[in-house]
Give the backbone structure.
Amino acid sequence: MRVFMTGGTGFVGRKIVGTLKKKGHEITVLTRRISPTPSLDDGVSFLEGNPVEAGDWQREVAGHDVVINLAGASIFTRWTKSSKKKIVDSRVLTTRNLVSALKQKGGKGTLFLSTSAIGYYGFHGDEELGEEGPAGEDFLASLSQEWEAAASEAESLGARVVLLRFGIVLGREGGALKQMMPVFKKYLGSPLGSGKQWFSWIHEQDLADLYLFLMEQEEIAGPVNCTAPYPVRNRELTKALGEALGKPTFMPAVPGFVMKIVMGEFGSMLLKGQRVMPKKLLEKGFHFRFPKIKEALNDLLN
């Protein structure tokens, strides 16, 4: 298949591109600036353009069977008014521009794989959350609802729309794990707040394999939780990461009020967490290579 992708040069995007290439798919990556990317260049076409803005790049979407929407500014920062706007615009405007490009094509027969987040559900303590769970009301929940609504507009064009609600992606070259490792290597790793909050995660390879699976399973549409089937509590993650690195975790927990002072609203989010289950994937027979946190971390770090 011919695949058009935004966000293809990020750490998640690179993993997905590599996995699709191995299966013989042709990939076009939209990027703001074309520069040498040795890990991607072979068999990948690059198209220069800003996905947040309408432009000539939209005309290229028509020649593709699959559109993968991964673009979005990082949420791992202090949430100010300006950073929130950047987070929202980078997702919602990009999605609207992709749907607009599908209108030019006439989207019938196109598969639109659009990223969302488990933040959609808000916070529910120990309650297990499947795809049928209700939407929350906080910033990430509101963002996810607007993001998904923009993507769902492609359904009226005849496209099959899948909303991939990402958990925390654990990978070798970026994301949460890359930010956590320096602290743990200095023997400073510790739980956050009570340590009881749930951490719904997924190994980068399982996430990449999901895309192939969804391309093949034509009956799947709508929201899909992209998380491993065994979420863990924050204190379990802390222990498992320390063991994988060979670094004891004996430091006391970081007090919740400190997290809120240092990180503001984003810090408050880290103290809550969500217990999300990949019900649709399990029902459809998707096989997770790394369903449990210890084997995932051992693969990524050793």
Summary: DSSP finds ten helices and 13 strands in the chain.
